[in-house]
Amino acid sequence: MKSLLISFLALGVVTASPVIHIDTFGESLGGWEKKNPKYAEFERSGSTYRTWRPEITPMVNGGVFVSLRIDHMRGVFATDDHASLEVTFAPDGTVESARSSLALQGKRVTSDLIAGTGKLGANIVGLDRAAKVGAEMVANLTAKVLRENIREPGRVTFPAVLNHNYNLLCLAVTVPPKATPVVEDGEPASSEAEAIKAPELPEAVPLIIERPPVKKK
User: Fold this and answer.
1) HEC states along 13-71?
2) Most buried residue among 53, 163, 179, 192 by CB atoms closer than 10 A?
3) What does the H/E/C string look like for 181-217?
4) pLDDT tens, 77-95?
């Protein structure tokens, strides 16, 4: 059993991964719908949008891949527009890459895959890197939307709505603290795989009950 645990640890299976707080993300959008908690609706610039609960996929390197769909509600007599947002988070919670796309009545506009490295600079980390990735993604998508000669207000602001969802998603990500090595049975943990340290229990303290003095008759 111990060798099996060490094998899993060596493969990185038991490492802590970023946690996506879906409830926090939904609350930041105004709250998941009570009748159907699968989505949240909100308004921007006079248009109504619907964000669906994100799909989260763990990655073999300890990171997570998040994808979500956003609808532009255009009314009863018009076909809704749809957008997708894909974000990859590294094991330390930083953004590795992001990409978005719009489907507007047969037209599909997709941004380039924006990576969190390269020309963004190696010194940019954490939320600063996330902000840079989001800004570049929305700028790339907006430029492509304008080239398609799209002028409807709800569609023109769709890239900004995607960026709004992207920012709130990044703010809903946390990373659990790393596990510390433990010495088990007097044998130090392997350098290739560190066991998870069990919480230390406080030493037992004897319970002393003082009896009240007996009153003399």
Assistant:
1) CCCCCCEECHHHHHHHCCCCCCCCCCEEEEEECCEEEEEECCEEEECCCCCEEEEEEEE
2) 163
3) CCEECCEECCCCCCCCCCCCCCCCCCCCCCCCCCCCC
4) 889 999 999 999 999 889 9
Q: Which residues pair with 103 in a beta bridge?
A: 82, 108
Q: What is the pTM of this model?
A: 0.73
Strand residues in 90-206 grouped as ranges (E)? 95-104, 107-110, 114-115, 173-174, 183-184, 187-188
- DSSP letter at 120? G
Cα angle 15, 17, 19; round to 5: 150
Instruction: Give 10-residue mean pLDDT values along the chain (217 residues).
Output: 42 67 95 94 94 96 95 90 95 92 90 72 60 92 88 89 95 79 51 44 47 55
Q: Residues 36-58: pLDDT tens digits?
A: 899 999 999 899 999 999 999 99
Beta strands at 173-174 and 19-20: parallel, antiparallel or unpaired: antiparallel
